[in-house]
């Protein structure tokens, strides 16, 4: 009898091993082995969108059931009261009884199961919804790097508000590498310089009122922000878009290309150009970017939404954090 039991166990174990090895899933029931057909990958967490002061949306790769979910403030840990609603097709609406504060960062984490009990633990962070978005334009762009001078995008603020959650997209950098601006109170006339590398000491984000915290090369008397990065992220032929928030309206943008330009290097760059034009945030031809160096930048001269608003400034006329030069570069 013992011999028969051993043989039976060996047969079951061998069968299970074979099924797993060949990619087929199974369960052992009182009646025997039950083979399950279909996809047995864990569900994937695709994206989070902040929709309002009290609502966010979570999107998964398939229909799921939320087993556990919580939202806390960061870095101070404080739980937020939430309700969740399944919208179908992997989409969940998360509603809070409180207001998401645009000056705070939140961390959301949870544990979910799909219909076949495949599980997923996920964690993400977001800035609270901002209903005080100021009017902001892209004002100056450096595409070139020569240590210690790094690439930057300068913003000029045209009305009071808070920049928290605004998204800055550089098309050549790809769809996964946009920069979301942290919560910063600004006033009309302010300049904000976003430096695209932090390669030395003193690269400190100036998030509060003290605008002298940053001591790295080209830290300005205006507000300085530094992206954690050490590689090129702005091209001489590129599309830059400033959005009011992730998935939000376009606040401003620019298309610039070298005179030798023939086609965008990636589909994403072409898509960004098309979106910018269709949104009416840009019209007409691109700005010609020939002659750009670390000391010659693209500088805005007016609020037009076409190439007439921009020039390549003369040598040594880059002005991060200050009023732009109007001296036009003339090639020799």
Task: Describe the overall structure.
The longest helix has 20 residues, at 2-21. The termini are far apart. The protein is mainly β and 332 residues long. The chain has 2 helices and 23 strands. The strands form 6 sheets. A 6-stranded mixed beta sheet has the order 18-17-12-11-22-23, with no helix packed on it. A 5-stranded mixed beta sheet has the order 15-14-19-20-21, with helices on one face. Strands 3-4-8-7 form a 4-stranded antiparallel beta sheet, with no helix packed on it.
Beta strand %: 35-45%
Record the strand order, biggest sheet.
18-17-12-11-22-23
**Shape call:** globular
N-C termini distance: 98 Å
**Main sheet specs:** 6 strands, mixed
The proportion of residues forming helix, as a percent range, comes to under 10%
Number of strands: 23
- Poorly predicted ranges: 1-36
Overall pLDDT level = 88
Q: What is the number of helices? A: 2
Give the SSE order as H and E letters: HEEEEEEEEEEEEEEEEEEEEHEEE
Radius of gyration: 26 Å
Helices and strands in order:
Elements (H helix, E strand, L loop, with lengths): L1 H20 L3 E5 L2 E5 L8 E8 L2 E6 L3 E11 L4 E2 L1 E7 L2 E6 L8 E10 L4 E9 L8 E7 L9 E6 L3 E2 L4 E4 L8 E2 L4 E2 L4 E5 L27 E4 L11 E6 L6 E8 L9 H12 L8 E2 L9 E3 L9 E3 L20
Parallel strand pairs: 17-18, 20-21
Antiparallel strand pairs: 1-2, 3-4, 4-8, 5-6, 5-9, 7-8, 9-10, 11-12, 11-22, 12-17, 13-16, 14-15, 14-19, 19-20, 22-23
């Amino acid at each position: 009898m013992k011999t028969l039991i051993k043989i039976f166990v060996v047969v079951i174990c061998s069968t299970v091993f074979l099924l797993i090895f060949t990619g087929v899933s199974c369960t052992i029931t009182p009646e025997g082995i039950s083979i399950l057909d279909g996809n047995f990958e864990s569900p994937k967490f695709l994206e989070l969108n902040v929709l309002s002061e009290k609502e966010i949306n979570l999107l998964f790769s398939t229909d799921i059931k939320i087993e556990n979910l919580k939202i806390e403030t960061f870095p101070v840990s404080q739980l937020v009261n939430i309700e969740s609603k399944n919208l179908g097709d992997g989409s969940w609406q998360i509603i809070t009884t409180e207001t998401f504060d645009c000056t705070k960062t939140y961390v959301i984490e949870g544990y979910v199961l799909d219909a076949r009990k495949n599980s997923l633990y996920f964690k993400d962070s977001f800035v609270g919804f901002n209903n005080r978005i100021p009017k902001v334009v892209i004002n100056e762009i450096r595409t070139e790097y020569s240590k210690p001078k790094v690439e930057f995008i300068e913003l000029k603020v045209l009305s009071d508000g808070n920049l928290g959650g605004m998204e800055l997209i550089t098309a050549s950098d790809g769809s996964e590498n946009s920069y979301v601006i942290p919560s910063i109170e600004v006033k009309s006339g302010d300049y904000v310089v976003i430096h695209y590398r932090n390669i030395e000491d003193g690269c400190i984000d100036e998030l509060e009122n003290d605008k002298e915290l940053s001591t790295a090369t080209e830290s300005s008397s205006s507000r300085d922000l530094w992206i954690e990065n050490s590689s090129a992220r702005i091209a001489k032929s590129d599309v830059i878009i400033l959005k009011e928030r992730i998935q939000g309206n376009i606040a401003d943008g620019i298309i610039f290309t070298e005179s030798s330009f023939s086609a965008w290097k990636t589909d994403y760059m072409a898509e960004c150009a098309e979106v910018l034009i269709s949104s009416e945030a840009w019209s007409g031809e691109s700005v010609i970017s020939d002659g750009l160096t670390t000391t010659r930048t693209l500088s805005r001269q007016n609020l037009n939404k076409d190439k007439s608003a921009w020039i390549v400034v003369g040598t040594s006329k880059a002005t991060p954090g200050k009023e732009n030069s109007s001296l036009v570069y003339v090639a020799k």
